[in-house]
Amino acid sequence: MIDPQAVSQGAPGSPDPGAGAAGAATSSAGSPLPPLTERQRAILRLIVQEYVQTGRPVGSKGLTERHAVGVSPATIRNEMAGLEEAGYLQSPHTSGGRVPTDQGYRYFVHHLMGAVELPSVDQIMIRHQFRQVEVQLEQWVELAASVLAETAGIVSVVTAPRPAVPRLRHFELIALQPRLALLILVTHESLVRQVMVRWPEDTDQESLSRLADALVSEVRGLTADEIAARARGGDGPARFVLGQLEGTLRGLDAVGQTEVRHSGLENILGLPEFAGADAQGLLDLFRGGAFLGAVLPQLGAGPDVQVFIGDENPADALRRFGVVLSTYGVDGSVTGILGVVGPTRMAYGRSISSVRYMARLMSDLVADLSSA
Amino acid sequence: MIDPQAVSQGAPGSPDPGAGAAGAATSSAGSPLPPLTERQRAILRLIVQEYVQTGRPVGSKGLTERHAVGVSPATIRNEMAGLEEAGYLQSPHTSGGRVPTDQGYRYFVHHLMGAVELPSVDQIMIRHQFRQVEVQLEQWVELAASVLAETAGIVSVVTAPRPAVPRLRHFELIALQPRLALLILVTHESLVRQVMVRWPEDTDQESLSRLADALVSEVRGLTADEIAARARGGDGPARFVLGQLEGTLRGLDAVGQTEVRHSGLENILGLPEFAGADAQGLLDLFRGGAFLGAVLPQLGAGPDVQVFIGDENPADALRRFGVVLSTYGVDGSVTGILGVVGPTRMAYGRSISSVRYMARLMSDLVADLSSA
DNA sequence: GCTAGCACTCGTTCCCGCCGAGTGCTAACG
DNA sequence: CGTTAGCACTCGGCGGGAACGAGTGCTAGC
Questions:
Q1: Highest mean pLDDT among A288-302, B199-213, B226-240
Q2: Superfamily in which the A120-163+258-369 domain is placed by CATH
Q3: Measured between alpha carbons, how far is residue B81 from residues B42, B64, B108 in Å?
């Protein structure tokens, strides 16, 4: 049903091939890689799986002890040496086992990962949680973040859906104080915004309602630009309201202020690779959306999940992470981004299937709510 | 202008007096404490200040080197011994300096802390930030959390204001889909809620507007109970809407679902006392409002700042923390809670003044927005 | 082509001794 | 009588060294 191969690569080549690799020939530069033998593939798969699970470098002896490979440690060593030369593994120290390189993970994701559909237990659990609540689109975002973090077991990031060209569907004015009103607007995509506006003169609910009634049919279905044009002709209060509507609509598609929800930080704070260092740094990374600002430009518009592993990440701050992202929404009309971030040694299979599933779910929700 | 003494104590006595104290006589149990001499007070003040700043136990020699006390280390040692016997200090190890006890902090907060007004630089900075934004009351909450965390330099917690008995001021219905509508209601206190409601039959904006217009004057100013009574007489759609209004109003004052915003976790993650251990535990503590659930029952309704130090905290999870809290809002009508949480060795002066200032600011905002 | 054996590397852990900061006590001093 | 100087003692932290174990590359034999 779902094609496991349909996972696109973040960046086509490692931007800095000379980074880690020990003294040996790093290969993979000019010459085409010889295809891996079936046994090498099996060993690579085992190493990735084991390292993902334990986080400790895996050695030849341990491998043969824990798994029923048919050969001796020495043979494994030979094959490992080959894999290392080809760039799929690296040894962090002279002794102490080997660890997959970014390229190794990449190969695993492309060729070795088995079925990538989310287990139906999880699917049911997720659908159940989403059925519990009956709220607005933008609260789905929060729920999506928390469910995604829980399902994938790492940190999730979700942006609210953003319409390409928002069109006004409806608005209301509510008096709060004689000179203070609440402006509520709804777009075609069912996004809702409330803004407080300081009213230039004393007013009351009745006159505000009259004003809204009079204007609403005039501006229904218009974009910010069209409303601006309309505003130039209007008189005092009407003109004022139109200006506010225009500004709020423009705010909706402003890239800069996209808010990024995250969840599940506690999932990775305990991991050994982030233990000693910078719990602070991690928090900072996800706060304030500095995170997405870095990744977003690289994100293709394609409907499928994209994977960035280690050095493939555009931003320096993300070099130590693996990132699995997808867009969601209705093509060309309203889109958002969701995904997960974890250590490079994350369970890519589960991450990818979780992200893909959640993206579908959110796309369906957005589609349901946006009126043509 | 502000009375530094007007800080009430969280819990009257330490619930577990035998906890830390070494073998010596723990005193402070039955006999009234002899008042501290002026020199002891000065030394205690120095120790608290120094420990708050550095986080390392402070010894007699270091004290005399870093501060121009007029006496020798030996004298300091004698006084320290007295302070330890009286329960204000404790020595974590045989050597290595002394550390204030909860009681020591308490004495400091009550009798040794100097001026507690927030420096006007900060006051100006805060007012400035609040003037920048023009949003709804509930977004003030988020801003308050972040400003408070920044000003006090530790973790802040802020709950949204909650009306004692919410009364409806206005509501609107907006059609999203033929069978899906958005219900927006505003209370007298200017709290806004949006709920999506699944409509029992196909409808459109026009009929929804008519319905809302007809009903709104009927229910203006009513409480949930009064609306429920009114609903019993209504017919189909009206009755349905009244039911939704009632439910949403009830949700507003439900204690259980009070949402707690926090900010500034990164400020304390770096501290030595939380370094090794449980970044995870810390996150968990503040997520999901489990935190306030524990403290809230203990919180007096008094208008002033309350301080809980270490063991004075009602919840076990907070035994390692100092907590400074205040209510804010309009007495008896709409109230929220805000405060900061940090290690017991926090800068109480700054925390208390920050919390007090922010509580005033938020109270003013709430008062401005709530129509009599 | 696979495997057993072997010498070697290197990170980890534990132990031990040193150092420094701090303490309590006692005796001397003004 | 309060204050101070001196002293023996305690204890945590740090650094070096030994023992250990996991892993490696290489070579020779099956």
A1: B199-213
A2: GAF domain (3.30.450.40)
A3: 15, 16, 18
